[in-house]
Model the fold of this input.
Amino acid sequence: MEESDLKEIYRILLEEFGPQKWWPAETRFEVIVGAFLTQQTKWSKVEKAICNLKQAGMLEPYGLVKVNITSLEEMIRCCGFYRQKASRLKSIAQFLIEKDMDELFSLPVDQLRRILLTLNGVGNETADSIILYAADKPKFVIDAYTTRIMDCMGVKGNYEELQKIFENALPKDVNMFKEYHALIVEYAKSYCGKKRCEECILVNGHRKGTIHGQEQV
Ligand code: SF4
Done:
C-alpha cells in the first residue's frame, strides 16, 4: 500500500462521517477506565458503566481504590468480564495514585508504552488507546476493525506491522490519529457490521484504482 493511500482513505472517511471528536470522555482518567471497560464489549455498555461510576463519584483513582470490590463489580457488570475488569480497574487506579499521572504521561512514547504493557490487562490496543487519547501522544491504535478493513484492502499484518504502516504513512499528528481511529470504527460499524460490502467505498475505491493496496506486508 502506498503512503498516499492511507491519507486518501482518511479523506474519504472524514468526508463520509465528519469529525468524530473522540475519545468521548471528560477526563484522562475516564479515558483510561473506558479503555479497560471496552475490552470485548460494545461501547454502549461502557457508557452505562461509566454513567454508574460517575453517579457514584467513582470516576477518579482514589474513589476506585476505596470502593468495595463487589459494589464496583455491580456498577460495571453490564460490560461483561466484570470481576476481572473490576480487579484491573482497582490495580490501575492504585498504580496511578503511586505514579503521578502528569509525570507518567510526560515520558517518551516508547517508554510510556513499555510501562503500560507491564500492567495487568493492558495489551497493545489498550496501551495505545491510553497513549493516544489520555496522554495525547501520537500512537496509532490498531483494533479488530482496522485489521479487517486492511485485510479487505489486501494488506495483511500483525498489530505492530499494521501500526508501522499507518505511522510511517501519516504525519505524527495526534488529532489526526485520534480522528482516523474513530472514523475506522464508525466505518466498520456502519458498513462491515451491517454487511454492506457491496457498497464498500474503500474496497470499491481500491478496485477503481483511486486507492491501491497490496497482497502482503
Ligand atoms: S464493508 Fe465489507 S468489504 Fe468493506 S471493509 Fe468492511 S468487511 Fe471489508
Observations:
- The chain has two domains: 3-21+141-208, 28-134.
- The mean pLDDT is 92.
- The two ends are 9 Å apart (CA to CA).
- DSSP finds 13 helices and no strands in the chain.
